């Protein structure tokens, strides 16, 4: 075979190697976009269902507390007790005391003039009565959900059941439906009578019709249904527009990347194999960067940072080998090595200083490793430490799939480990997102600390953390001005070169001891 023939075959093979993956990635991107679309809808629907159940459970708890009252009805003491319930329980708007079905008094009126309630529309499996009613002592023509026991009724605003902020990029609509009367109680008025009838049929929980996808969560016990839906058209329109813009550029980038990667792979000679060997030979070392209280500069712990020592004595930045470990499936092995190194180098020091802690970075893949909790528990017991001395850091993408991350994170917190959100603000960064995470501390990303003077997002992050009573650690503090700004805004902890760079274990221990003695 001639050289020209070989070159032609090689060229064809290279073109196929470039265009086939690009074409496949485009198809997979479209498929993934659809899956993300459905996941957004399902996630929003699940949040709405959780909110609805929370409202119902709180109402029942308030009724049980009311039933425990043993004094005379409609006295000043009784009215005060009912007012305390309506004030202290978040979703309860009004409390009524009934004799049979006749209201006698309420948290608003000592002498209620409300007409008798009709027979309840529903009686739950645990014996509570439920109505959709306009009964109130204020003369307002507003429907409320009423949940009652033998002598008490609590009034709940229907919008409380579905008061959920959407966090996706496409508009999401939500409505609360009475499955008995086919009546929309609260939420978006965009549901037609025909669609209501279709939704109220005892059928599938997901309906796709007329360019919209509906997700139905039915509560047969209360006779309610929560309907969430999204239009498909904006998704496909945006996809087609982006495809026409990015496909030519994607082809060009693919060619350039193929050229660069071929040269890089020749030089590195299988980076995955080299990293795996480095892990097996325990060539990955761990440095420690102190974390201090900003008010007094006293050390409270440190962050463990992996370093890969090269043959020439230099250290390969973790920004290079951590993504390699993630994408090549080596992250659980690397994390295990880092954890074992933390204990072997600082176990004795931590035992001598029970008020200090070390935070260890985890990747989402680590949460799928069933051996991680046992490894931590075994090493903590061996070195006679408290679980609170080992904190675990996850980036925001580690919380992106609650079905996977939620149980693992909850188990680690239950074992006594604090959970940090690392590099907070570079991902989802919203109050509705943050309030649903099971975490203790957020770490403000260095990029926001660098931009304190001309970006308003950092105070926004601080306000969110304060609203949810989360502690904060600012990363990358390098100047006295940054320190004073962060202290002024109430950030409790920080790390950065203003205090110390990441240090080898011996140098870190010396620095920490000097800091503790100075304090």
Automatic annotation (TrEMBL):
Coiled-coil positions: none
Transmembrane segments: 243-265
Catalysed reaction equations from the record: 3',3'-c-di-GMP + H2O = 5'-phosphoguanylyl(3'->5')guanosine + H(+)
Alphabetic keyword roster: c-di-GMP, Cell membrane, Hydrolase, Membrane, Transmembrane, Transmembrane helix
Highest taxon, organism lineage: Bacteria
Subcellular location: Cell membrane
Pfam families: CSS-motif (PF12792), EAL (PF00563)
Annotated PROSITE patterns: EAL (PS50883)
EC identifiers of the protein: 3.1.4.52
InterPro entries in the cross-refs: CSS-motif_dom, Cyclic-di-GMP_PDE-like, EAL_dom, EAL_sf
Lipid bilayer topology: Multi-pass membrane protein
Domain EAL intervals: 268-516
Protein's name according to its UniProt entry: cyclic-guanylate-specific phosphodiesterase
Organism phylogeny: Bacteria, Pseudomonadati, Pseudomonadota, Gammaproteobacteria, Enterobacterales
């Amino acid at each position: 075979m001639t050289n020209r023939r070989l070159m032609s075959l090689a060229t064809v093979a290279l073109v196929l190697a470039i265009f086939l993956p690009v074409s496949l990635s485009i198809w997979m991107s479209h498929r993934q976009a659809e899956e993300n679309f459905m996941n957004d809808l399902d996630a929003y629907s699940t949040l709405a269902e959780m909110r609805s159940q929370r409202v119902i459970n709180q109402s029942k708890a308030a009724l049980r507390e009311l039933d425990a009252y043993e004094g005379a009805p409609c006295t000043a003491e009784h009215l005060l007790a009912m007012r305390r319930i309506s004030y202290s329980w978040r979703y309860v708007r009004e409390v009524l005391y009934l004799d049979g079905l006749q209201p006698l008094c309420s948290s608003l009126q000592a002498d209620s003039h409300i007409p008798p309630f009709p027979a309840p529309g529903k009686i739950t499996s645990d014996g509570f009565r439920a109505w959709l009613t306009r009964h109130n002592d204020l003369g307002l023509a507003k429907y409320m959900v009423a949940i009652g026991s033998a002598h008490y009724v609590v009034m709940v605003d229907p919008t409380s059941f579905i008061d959920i902020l959407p966090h996706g990029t496409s508009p999401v609509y939500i409505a609360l439906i009475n499955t008995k009367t086919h009546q929309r109680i609260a939420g978006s008025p965009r549901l037609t009578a025909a669609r209501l009838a279709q939704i109220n049929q005892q059928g599938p929980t997901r309906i796709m019709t007329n360019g919209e996808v509906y997700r139905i969560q039915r509560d047969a016990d209360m006779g309610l249904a929560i309907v969430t839906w999204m239009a498909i058209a904006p998704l496909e329109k945006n996809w087609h527009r982006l495809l026409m813009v990015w496909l030519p550029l994607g082809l060009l980038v693919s060619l350039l990347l193929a050229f660069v990667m071929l040269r890089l792979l020749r030089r590195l000679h299988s980076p995955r194999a080299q990293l795996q060997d480095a892990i097996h030979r325990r060539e990955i070392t761990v440095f420690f960067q102190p974390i201090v209280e900003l008010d007094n500069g006293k050390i409270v712990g440190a962050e463990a940072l992996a370093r890969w020592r090269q043959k020439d004595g230099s250290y390969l930045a973790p920004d290079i080998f951590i993504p390699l470990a993630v994408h090549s499936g080596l992250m659980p092995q690397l994390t295990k090595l880092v954890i074992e190194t933390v204990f072997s180098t600082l176990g004795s020091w931590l035992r001598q200083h029970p008020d200090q802690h070390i935070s260890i970075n985890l990747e989402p893949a680590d949460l799928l490793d069933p051996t991680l909790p046992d490894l931590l528990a075994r090493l903590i017991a061996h070195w006679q430490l408290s679980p609170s001395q080992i904190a675990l850091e996850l980036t925001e993408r580690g919380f992106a799939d609650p079905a996977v991350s939620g149980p693992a994170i909850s188990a680690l917190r239950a074992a006594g480990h604090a959970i940090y959100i690392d590099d907070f603000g570079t991902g989802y960064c919203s109050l509705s997102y943050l309030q649903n995470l099971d975490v203790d501390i957020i770490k403000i990303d260095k990029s926001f600390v660098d931009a304190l003077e001309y970006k308003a997002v950092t105070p926004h992050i601080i306000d969110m953390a304060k609203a949810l009573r989360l502690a904060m650690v600012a990363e990358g503090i390098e100047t006295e001005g940054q320190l004073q700004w962060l202290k002024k805004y109430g950030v409790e902890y920080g790390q950065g070169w203003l205090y110390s760079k990441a240090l080898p274990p011996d140098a870190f221990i010396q620095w920490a001891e000097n800091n503790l003695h100075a304090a």
